[in-house]
Write a structure and sequence with these properties.
Blueprint (H helix, E strand, L loop, with lengths): L10 H18 L1 H24 L2 H15 L2 H16 L3 H31 L1 H16 L2 H12 L3 H25 L3 H9 L4 H12 L1 H17 L1 H4 L7 H10 L3 H25 L3 H5 L5 H17 L7
Helix pairs in contact: 2-5, 3-4, 4-14, 5-6, 5-8, 5-11, 6-8, 7-8, 8-11, 9-10, 11-14, 13-14
């Protein structure tokens, strides 16, 4: 009376149905999954080849200059120093492999997440259907994504990218939808009253005003993609996660910590740089006006007005 009846348990039957469906997909849609892997592998290989082809010192300088131009001098100096530290630790090539996988996952996530976020903001019914799916994608343990990706796509970097995209795309969809929904309706109505079409309103009003929220979603997507680096290394993804995984497998504490340090430094660089993309350059460079400077400006304006009074009628 106190225990649940075993005859009512349907979990094993559901597991059998899922396994049967997975086997059917593998047998009947093998050519589809092979074609699915081609563009992902093409993008990943080209990006990885380019990052490994560029000399290490050029990567260090380019990273520092990019961080400086997008954020500040302090972040630029830190980014340069962090890249030098990774090079000194012998992690430069592994960091470039990790960066290639993260950038590939981010490009795919943005390509899919931005349109889905726009549709979610435009249509409440679509947003209601998408919300439970996004909740499941965010709360599901990340190891679970590896099982279908491994069975359908095999070992290697492609299933790692696919699992990373599934894990990292929900914040971008949510924040894109939220940013567009929070645009002032009066601004949208003013643009519509001037004859702007729905496409012009979206491209010239809503997306620019929602850019900080969208870039926050891109930032979170990058951070979650980096969080999958170590887990993806278990199915053949190369990069810094391999060092952490080997350190765990061989009880090599130093090797694992060095790999973890490389991931942390890479995450900080990408986090600060993507945050700078959401702010206009003029706002980053122009110093904040002080109360003293504002008072002096008002005094000069008043004196100029006294010296040159306004004449009416010529």
């Amino acid at each position: 009376m106190l225990e649940f009846p075993d005859s009512w348990v349907i979990g094993p039957e559901i597991s059998k149905w899922i396994n049967s469906g997975t086997e059917w997909l593998i047998i009947n849609l093998d050519s589809f999954f092979d074609a699915f892997k081609v563009p992902i592998l093409f993008l990943l290989k080209r990006m990885e080849f380019f990052l490994l082809w560029v000399p290490w010192w050029a990567i260090v300088i380019a990273t520092g200059l990019l961080a400086w131009r997008l954020t500040s001098v302090r972040v630029g100096i830190f980014s340069t120093a962090a890249m030098l530290v990774m090079a000194l630790l012998g992690l430069h090539d592994l960091a470039m492999m990790t960066l290639a996988m993260v950038l590939t996952s981010t490009v795919i996530s943005v390509s899919l997440g931005l349109p889905l976020g726009i549709l979610s903001a435009k249509y409440d019914r679509f947003e209601g259907l998408l919300r439970p799916l996004l909740d499941a994608m965010q709360t599901m343990p990340s190891f679970v994504y590896l099982i279908p990706a491994l069975m359908l796509l095999g070992l290697g970097r492609v299933p790692a990218v696919a699992a990373t995209v599934i894990y990292a795309i929900p914040p971008l969809i949510r924040l894109t939808s939220l940013g567009i929904r929070q645009v002032d309706p009066n601004v949208v109505e003013a643009a519509r009253s001037f004859g702007a079409s729905a496409k012009q309103i979206l491209l010239n009003v809503q997306l620019p005003m929602a850019l900080p929220s969208i870039m926050a979603g891109v930032n979170q997507t990058i951070m979650m993609a980096l969080a999958m680096v170590v887990i993806a290394s278990m199915i053949g993804a190369k990069g810094l996660g391999v060092e952490v995984f080997n350190g765990i497998a061989r009880l090599d504490v130093g090797r694992g910590l060095m790999g973890g340090l490389g991931i942390v430094l890479l995450a900080i660089i990408m986090d600060r740089t993507t945050q700078g993309l959401a702010r206009p350059r003029r706002a980053r460079r122009k110093p904040e006006p002080t109360a003293r400077s504002e008072t002096a400006t008002m005094e000069r304006t008043t004196e100029k007005g006294k010296e040159e009074p306004l004449s009416v009628g010529g």
